[in-house]
Design brief:
mainly beta; five-stranded antiparallel β-sheet; two-stranded antiparallel sheet; 57% strand
Length: 103
């Protein structure tokens, strides 16, 4: 029923920028064996993301992205079919370092 997501960046200098994002998802119904059975709920979760980038010049830049900074355990793509519900575990902490060159 409740969710929110925000992302922001800050240009520290001409060459250096940082970013931060947060996503919140409230608990929601997971599954039930029948229409009269008790409901199961996934727990609510909050996922943090961070980014830092450095531009060496107009053509060459280095960027680090970190998803799920706190390594939160959570479920996404939840399906609540009666007697046959399922969910996919969310992504664990991941860091990606990239170097980009523009022609």
């Amino acid at each position: 029923e409740h969710s929110a997501s925000v992302w922001t960046t800050y240009q520290v200098s001409n060459a250096f920028a940082v970013g931060y994002g947060i996503t919140y998802q409230a608990e929601y119904t997971f599954t039930r064996a029948s229409a009269t059975s008790d409901l199961y709920f996934t727990p609510s979760y909050t996922v943090h993301r961070a980014m830092a980038t450095y531009a060496f010049n107009d053509k060459l830049a280095l960027q680090l992205n970190i998803n799920n900074v706190t390594d939160e355990e959570y479920f996404e793509r939840v399906r609540n079919n009666a007697g046959n519900g399922w969910a996919t575990p969310g992504q664990a902490r991941v860091a990606v370092l990239s170097l980009s060159y523009r022609l």
